């Protein structure tokens, strides 16, 4: 099985921290050397492991932002 490699290009925010020390983060990440995407997922302390997450292109992130701004302003 192919190793998955990632590089955190830009740390954006830690959204929460669980009792176990895992953090839910949003970052700009390059997966396997590809174009960086916005990424929301959990990481163990020291980022040794990461959980399942969601990656978004810039266009998808803009649509998500617009949708959240709309619903949160209601």
TrEMBL record:
Top-level taxon of the source organism: Bacteria
Record InterPro entries: PC4-like, PC4_C
The Transcriptional coactivator p15 (PC4) C-terminal domain, residue ranges: 21-67
Protein name, entry field: Transcriptional coactivator p15 (PC4) C-terminal domain-containing protein
Lineage, broadest ranks: Bacteria, Bacillati, Bacillota, Clostridia, Lachnospirales
